[in-house]
Amino acid sequence: MLAPVYLSGLIPPSQYGYGVFSGDAQLNLWALSWQWNSIPENLMHLWDGNAFYPSPGTILGSDHLFTLALTGLPFFWLTGNIFYTYYFLVFFGFAVGAWGMYQLVYYLLNSRKSALISAIIFTIALPRTIHAMNHIQIISFQWFPWTLLCLFKYFDTGKRRYAAGLGCFSILQMLTSWYLAVFHSLGLGLAIIVEIFRTRNYARFIGIALTLIIVAVFVCPFARFYSEHTPDPASVIISGSATWCDYITPPGNTFWSNFIPAGIWSEKTLFLGFVTLLLALTGLLDITSWRSRKTRRLIIHGLIIGVAAAYFSFGPFCHSSEAPRLFTEYFQKLFPFLSLIRAPARFAQLLVVSLALLAGNGIRVIHQALPTRSRLATVIPTILALFILIEHLPLMRLDPVKMPYLPVYSWLEKMPAGTAVAELPTYYGTELWGFDSEYMLFASFHGHSILNGYSRFVPCAFSERMAWLASFPDSESIQKLSQIGISYVIIHPQRYFYEEMTKLFDSFHDQQDPSIALNRIIRLYNDNYALIDGEKGFAIINKAKQSDDLVFIGKFGLEYVFALNPDTKRSRRIIQNIDSRR
Asked: Which has the closest alpha carbon to 170: 149, 197, 193, 199?
């Protein structure tokens, strides 16, 4: 119930069903949609998405989201709507994660109040909800609490069903995304080590080891593709690394920003909440809790996971220079996959787990310190819960995002199978590259291959192909595109908004209130049919019309379509069909 309230300000509604707005959100929708439409008819090409034509395996250029694809498949079959299914996955993840954290803390502390507070923190903490707009591959951390619960129950009882549960939940979590596979591996590995030292029960460890081998059999084929990628430059990793201030600085448009200096909204919006931190410190420092085996277990796990998460969130390099931080070189040699983490600040997902555990114990300590039959025993925990809800609530609202299905895509749907297109403009190599993801999103509907694409990792020849496209319509560009099988080039003159959009994004990065800049960006995006800087697009269109190597197919809405080296008779038939339909 909390998720819709806390995400309503971060996910703008859309006239097309869902407020996805360029970049990673549309990339994820494309990857999920391709898998939903490929299961079960086209399993042999499950990873061969229709972007980055003609390269294969393009789904694996970013997170494959395989668990999310399987989870959302029944809902997609029921609704046939990728936007509603995406929405369902977001809320399903928060609900399952909250229930898992509740069950975990209740098992460890036998306190419903503690379990409820822990579930609330795990659900609404800003380091998690900040990713709701774009990064479903980060917020879908719902299987980790269930994994810990099965681990603890297995060490306590030795029942095989808990080992099986640990394996199943680990596979589900690790096949959600590469980031979450790393976070899950770190958290689970530390928890297993703590349990072995705590119980000295090495027979249980053998059972866990066998379970992890089975997990590796499922996960390694996916991990193999990511091991072939190269790490990002140190400057990129440093920009995505956390600092201590990030954890204690509230962003703008939140409750505390009305009283103290606030930070900007970004990848490093990691504010943990003052009340949350106070409760966690109470649960950590309470002496009586350390004397009880039951609560000491929770504290040790929460403390070790939290310290490790904070350490890795600071990244492998010093912020003042690109020198390696203490022990990071050793860890990266021991665990090479850590070098592929572009934004170490996202390790805060594990830190939220730690704080949820410790804060749950903090509520237990406060509740036990109050008279049992006093109203204060109910009132004070309730007030603390309300403060937690308030300090993590984003007080912003975004304008609706207009995403009409363009007439040119309706025309493209009628083209024969095997048709490949390229679209202009492309912002590859600029800060606005994320806008190219819209081409991928609509490729999910018209179903044809596109030369364009947006992802963290791109095929080897992609840069060269984008250079050909950028020089369109010169004769060499037309020849190269034709040789790789491109049939049509679609030109969107209204999307030549580089200068205006760059200025708005620069203002977004400098403002504490992101809704101001984001709403301006959304308005500009919604009004792109006013031809913001259409002169550039029309110049390319006029030049293309003069080329002897191109045939002008027609204008659909504001889009212009050209055929590359087409068969003359076939092109004339297409144009005649278009004219007859008009």
From this structure: 149
Torsion over CA: 166, 172, 173, 174 (sign): positive
Among the listed residues 475, 430, 434, 468, the one whose alpha carbon sits nearest the alpha carbon of residue 451: 468
Q: What is the C-alpha separation between 474 and 353, in angstroms, rounded?
A: 55
What tens digit of pLDDT does each residue of 46-61 get?
A: 888 899 998 888 888 7
Select from 23, 53, 22, 31 the least CA-distant residue to 488.
53
Look at the block and give the residue holding tokens 């430059």.
233
**DSSP string across 276-318:** HHHHHHHHHH-HHHHHSHHHHHHHHHHHHHHHHHHHHHT-SB-
pTM for this predicted structure? 0.88
Edge-to-edge order in the sheet of strand 420-424: 449-450, 420-424, 488-491, 559-564, 550-556
pLDDT digits (tens, 9 = 90+) for 95-136: 999 999 999 999 999 999 999 999 999 999 988 988 877 788
Q: What is the 3-state secondary structure (H, E, C) of 320-334?
A: CCCCECCCHHHHHHH
Of 359, 339, 196, nearest in space to 278 by CA? 359
Distance CA 461, CA 442 (A): 23
| Residue, of 295 and 405, whose pLDDT is higher | 295
Share of the chain above pLDDT 70, in %: 81
| Cα 228 to Cα 97, 215, 457, 504, distances in angstroms | 31, 21, 10, 36
Which range is most confident: 54-68, 97-111, 527-541, 545-559? 97-111
Q: Count of residues for the chain?
A: 582
Peptide bond into 40 cis (omega under 30): yes
